[in-house]
Specification:
Blueprint (H helix, E strand, L loop, with lengths): L1 H17 L3 E14 L7 E12 L4 E7 L8 H11 L7 E8 L9 E11 L2 E14 L2 E10 L16 E13 L3
InterPro entries: Lipid/polyisoprenoid-bd_YceI, TTHA0802/YceI-like_sf
Organism: Aquimarina brevivitae
Protein name: YceI-like domain-containing protein
């Protein structure tokens, strides 16, 4: 009788184990390259990006603190924060979206992610490709896409506009774990 109760308990609880799971990332990375040529390298990386992925419905939320972007050149970092993204006024960039045609049972694949990117006080719908792979107990989401600074009200003075690309290349890497 004891084994029968245990068996039915496990049978009833098993769907709950497969139900909604949220994966978290606090060590995500966003790297961008805004160089228009090889003469002046305008690159930065933020290795403290946070994100949540709901594997039941395919929703995702990402948060990046703009002052966490690190450049090779301290003066570039200062100009980035003070003159371009104005990180004192707009301290973060966020993304909230959904993986299209998400399949909870077959999570490892390529997806189109559509959602709202908020940067520099402006929110804009974007749609990007991403790949999710499973590695041990982690889900690894990676994506590469382009954004235009002007779409987010980021003004580039004419004097230096030749140094900056019209479209900034962005690479996202998020290692998700269950806890």
């Amino acid at each position: 009788m004891k084994y029968l109760i245990l068996y039915f308990s496990l049978l009833l609880l098993s769907p709950l184990c497969l139900a909604q799971k949220k994966y978290y990332s606090s060590k995500g990375k966003i790297a961008f390259n805004a160089s228009s040529s090889s003469i002046v390298e305008i690159k930065a990386i933020n290795s403290n990006v946070s994100a949540i992925l709901n594997t039941e419905n395919g929703t995702i939320a990402v948060l990046s603190l703009l002052q966490k972007f690190k450049f090779k050149n301290g003066l570039m970092e200062e100009h980035f924060n003070e003159n371009y993204v104005e990180s004192d006024k707009y301290p973060k960039a966020t993304f909230q979206g959904t993986l299209e045609n998400f399949e909870p049972k077959n999570i490892q694949k390529s997806y189109r992610i559509t959602g709202i990117l908020s940067l520099h006080g402006i929110s804009k719908e974007i749609s990007v490709n991403a790949i999710i792979e499973r590695e041990n107990n982690l889900l690894l989401l990676s994506s590469k896409f382009f954004i235009a600074p002007e779409d987010f009200g980021i003004d580039v003075p004419r004097l230096i506009s030749y140094k900056l690309a019209d479209r900034v290349s962005v690479e996202l890497s998020l290692p998700f774990s269950e806890n």
